[in-house]
Amino acid sequence: MIEIGEEDPTGADVVALIEAHRAFSLTITPPEHAYAMPPEQVAGSDLVLVGARESGQLLGVGALREFDAATGEVKSMHTAAQARGRGVGRLVLEDLLARCRARGYHRVLLETGSMEEMAAARSLYESVGFERRAPYGHYTENGINLCYELSLQG
């Protein structure tokens, strides 16, 4: 059974999975457009990091940060290669969205890539209602980074 819960961002297996996420991002994205955070930035931030575990093994992670008082932002979503296709990303995302609702956020933002390697992630986000939007924050319109928004109102 897969269990979802908050993770210590300095745990060895968590750091390794965040490093894998960053390495993957840098192999498919030009460095100037790669926004995957290194483990020390995840650990030293205001993020809440959640993980999916099965029999103690870390299968996936995702993070939530407050963008503003009414808005959450999903960050650092990654599923271990051996766990892909099992719904791990969906479980992590559902937990993050539940946390957004519990915090009273009105919307959730995220950024992902336009590359074919990110098609499954885009499909997941769209399947729960995220819609493409103009870039926000430090993101720019560049054909590589795609921004999404999910309204939690209504």
What order do the helices and strands come in, and which of them pair?
Layout: E1 2-6, H1 12-28, H2 39-43, E2 48-54, E3 57-68, E4 71-79, H3 88-102, E5 107-113, H4 119-127, E6 131-133, E7 145-151
Q: Beta-sheet strand percentage?
A: 25-35%
Strand order of the largest sheet: 1-2-3-4-5-7-6
Whole-angstrom Rg: 14 Å
Spatial gap, N to C terminus:
32 Å
Helix content: 25-40%
Give keywords.
alpha+beta; 7-stranded mixed β-sheet; 4 helices; 32% strand
Written description of the protein model:
The protein is α+β, with helices and mostly antiparallel strands. The chain is built from four helices and seven strands. It has helices at residues 12-28, 39-43, 88-102, 119-127, and strands at residues 2-6, 48-54, 57-68, 71-79, 107-113, 131-133, 145-151. It has a seven-stranded mixed beta sheet, sandwiched between helices. A hairpin with a 2-residue loop joins strand 2 and strand 3 (57-68). The longest helix has 17 residues, at 12-28. The radius of gyration is 14 Å and the shape is globular. The termini are far apart. 29% of the residues are buried. The mean pLDDT is 93.
